[in-house]
Every structure is written in C-alpha cells, then in structure tokens.
Amino acid sequence: MKKRLALGLISLLALHTLQADDNTPTPLDEIANDFTLQTTIDAEVNIQGTHNAAGNNARIGRDSFIALGHMLTDKIRLNLALKLEHLFRDNKIELKDSNFKWQEFVKEAFIEIRDVMGTPTAIIIGKQPIPFGEKETLKNMPIFDHQQLLAIEDINEVFGITVDMTEGFMGIFNRVELSAFESKAGDMEVGRLDSFSIRVSKKITENAQISISHAHLGHKNEPGIKGEDRTVIGIITRSDDGKLTGHLHGIHLVNNAQFPDAKYGITFGAQWEVLPFARVVAEYSWLSDSFSEYGVGISADLTKNLVLGVGTRYRSNENGSSEWLTGMELKVILSNDKYYLRPNSIFDQE
C-alpha cells in the first residue's frame, strides 16, 4: 500500500503554520514569528569538479539537499528533505524527464516524537536515514562520495521505525538505537519491514567513543538479491584541544551485493585543524578481495556559508587495476539556524 507521507507532511506543516489553537486565523505577524521560532530551513549544495583517467566531470554532488523541519509541539517534529542531486542531473533541471521520479527526489519524510512517556527516548517514523556505523567521519574528506566504504555504512532513504534511547541504558551504554525498516531504498512505498539494525555507543574516555552496529537487510522486496548482514565497530577519538580527531572502523560483511567477495574491511583516518578555518584530512581504506585506497584533502571555510575543499584518492583494485581521482568541491550552506553554520571562516579572522 502506497503511503504519500511527503504530501501528508507538507499538509501538516501548512495547517499548523496557518492555524491557531483556537481555530481562528492567525495574524500575519504572528505567522512570521511562529515560522521563525518553530521552523528551520537548511540547504546544502555540493558543487564538484573531478578528474581521472576517464576525463573531467562536473556535477552536483551527493548529500546536496534542502530540508524543512517544523516543531508541532516541543516534543513532536516533522522533517522533509529533498535530494537536489536527483533534480540536477546532467547539469540541468528536467522535471518532465522520464528518469525523474518524485519518490526518489524525496530524501527524508519523517515525524520524530521526543521524550516518550517522560523518558529520554525518541521515536522516528517514516522515510529516514538508519543509524548505523560512523559514516559522518567518512564525510570529512572533500569529494567524500567517492569513498567506496561509504555505501556500506550509509543506509538511508528507507521507510522504517527507529527508537533512539539516550542518556544511559541500564548503566551500560550512553546511547542505543534500534530500527526496523524495509531494505529497498529510494521510493515512497511502504513495503515489508524485512530488515533491522542496532547501534550501541559508549563513551570510554573523555575524548574517545566506541560504537558497535549490526544490520540485517532482508531484501525481500528486491528479487534476486540475497539477504545480507553488516557489522561495523567504530572508534572516534580527539585531542584535548579538539583540533585533532581520528577514526577507526572495522567492518564485517556477509552476502553484500556490491562487494560479493568481501568479508572484512577497515578504514582509519585523521583530521587536523591547522587553522581556525582550515582542516587537513588523511584516510586509508581496505576491503578484502576488493580494493585498498588512500586519500588526502584539505578544506577551508571561505565564509560561514561557503566551504572549499580539494582532495585526491588513489585506489588499487584486487584485479590489478588502479585509479587516481582528484577533485575540488564548493559547499554552499544556507540555514536559518545559526548553530548549523560554521563558527569560523577566513574572513572572520583579524
């Protein structure tokens, strides 16, 4: 059964913004105040240019989006995010193109309920990213979407239910996240919830955290694809001054369709804040019977809204082939939430 959740969210956003508690029309100034206080608009566009043996390529990169979040109450939040790279294909907008599918254009459409029954627990229902692995550390590199292991840790655009428990769990973990979801991604249909995941996180020192994630993807809605299992153990560390951070991921795979011969993998890297507005990143990744890869890059905050990054990767494949990839990325960040923006930039320095 098809669930037009995105349209429902849009309708709820409009209804709540335009209607007061007493069902009387809200004055225009109160509408503006309500929108400013309760609604957030975030947008991020990654403009990329890359070069490898196949030639040059320019495009709108992965994770380019525009998102609208709205607090219905202090505990209930609606979120709708649109995937801009699906809109800008072949460097042009073609809404009538047969390849354009609005279901794939919707990146996220979910409702989040916080402090359930007075406990530090949140429930997220809808099309959402699944808490798994430590994928955000892999996105520190410029042109990060060419990182091969990102596809393993990034389970997103799927319909599901997530329970997020924070502020301790039986005194053992600092955070536990449980999800049940359908494995087929990208559409707006609610299929069979054939998959599940769990991620537990623990702060082991003041500057170190460990997480353990496991996911089973049933692929019952995708004929011809076997069920698979993924496990990721991630460690994140930082220096006392916060200028140097590091990450280490250990990976175990069973029946992964993209890397059918792979069983084990590892990736580790570091990011060093060389200036208040600039960071250097280095990274190494290896996947058994598949590839090994080295990457290095630097990114700088030109302003609070513009981040420029340059990076290069070298990949050596198991079949003996190899590839260099060099690229530049300009990230445009727009938000009405000041905490979303970069705190420092080149032009902020005296």
Describe what you observe in this structure:
It contains six helices and 19 strands. It has 350 residues and is mainly β. The protein has one domain: Porin, CATH 2.40.160.10. Strand 16 and strand 17 form a beta hairpin. The longest helix is centred in the first third of the chain and has 14 residues, at 5-18.
Strands, helices and their partners?
Blueprint lengths: L4 H14 L9 H11 E14 L2 E6 L4 E7 L4 E8 H4 E2 L2 E2 L8 H4 E8 L7 E8 L6 H4 L11 H4 L4 E12 L3 E9 L13 E11 L2 E10 L10 E11 L5 E11 L9 E12 L2 E10 L3 E11 L4 E12 L4 E14 L15
Antiparallel strand pairs: 1-2, 1-3, 1-19, 3-4, 4-7, 5-6, 7-8, 8-9, 9-10, 10-11, 11-12, 12-13, 13-14, 14-15, 15-16, 16-17, 17-18, 18-19
> Can you name the CATH architecture?
Beta Barrel
Largest beta sheet, briefly?
A: 16 strands, antiparallel, barrel
Low-pLDDT stretches are 1-22, 24-32, 338-350
What is the level 1 CATH name?
Mainly Beta
Tell me the helix content.
10-25%
Count of all domains: 1
Q: How do the helices and strands follow one another from N- to C-terminus?
A: HHEEEEHEEHEEHHEEEEEEEEEEE
- Note the overall shape: globular
Distance between the terminal alpha carbons, to the nearest Å?
Answer: 59 Å
CATH superfamily: Porin
